[in-house]
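User: Can you help me understand a structure? I only have the sequence.
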Amino acid sequence: MKKTIALALAALMLLALLTACAVKPAETEPAELEQAVQTEQPAEPETDETAEDADASAEPALPDGVYTADFNTDSSMFHANEACDGKGTLTVENGEMTIHVSLAGTSILNLFPGVKEDAEKEGAELLQPTTDTVTYSDGLSDEVFGFDIPVPTLDEEFDLALIGKKGTWYDHKVSVTNAVLKEDDAAAPAETLADGTYTIAVTLEGGSGKANIQSPCTLTVADGKMTATIVWSSSHYDYMLVDGERCDVLSTENGSTFEIPVAALDTPLAVVGDTTAMSTPHEIDYTLTFDASSAEVNR
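Assistant: Let's start by predicting it. Here is the structure, written out as tokens:
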């Protein structure tokens, strides 16, 4: 009997020990899961700032306009003509950039924006030459080939392949740098006057020099449009032509008086005066320039 009780107690102790071992791993699972959850962080979503940076990088490098720019190459045999001082004309339109480069001669027949392997493929779109006239510092002129070259980016090298009269393609690296807006495209604000009546100095050039005009003259500005009263020293002018518009004489007393449109101040204005002083009428070319700094309100 005692032996049986001892065996039963031993069995109970063994069962309790096995149960404890089975329960212990279950207690550690939540901690391990929590650690795993903390380790796996979700990917950060794209922020507005990131999107703005991406948009900024897509903006064109230059505003639309016409620029001069350096055209740099990796070869002394392939470069801009010396008369152009290593520069080309860079045109930006709708964000697309193209540089026109006059080369040193006529030995380069085609260019290709890329590498020679692609240029040799059937259907490759090759750049065709233009015939440019360049004038050197000694006054001599020459006809050379020029090309309109697409520019993917400024201040960085890009691939440009060429083929000459020998029929072999060559790879080159070129870059376009130091773009400067041309003076005639640098939109300097035009001199404008408020509506009113002014006196303004006007100079006359052209003709034989025998006739002259009254200066200062009267300038009227209405709705932003300028009209000048021009009085000639001669009473023999019967009409003037200004920008293709005929202006007939208003009076021939004490000279010939006209009212003509003025497109801009400080800018030469080409006009034609028809004189009847000779046996037959003659149209004579003149230039009028109105000095904006001299304009004074006519009181």
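Now, to help you interpret it: The longest strand covers residues 169-181. The radius of gyration is 41 Å. Let me know which part you'd like to focus on.
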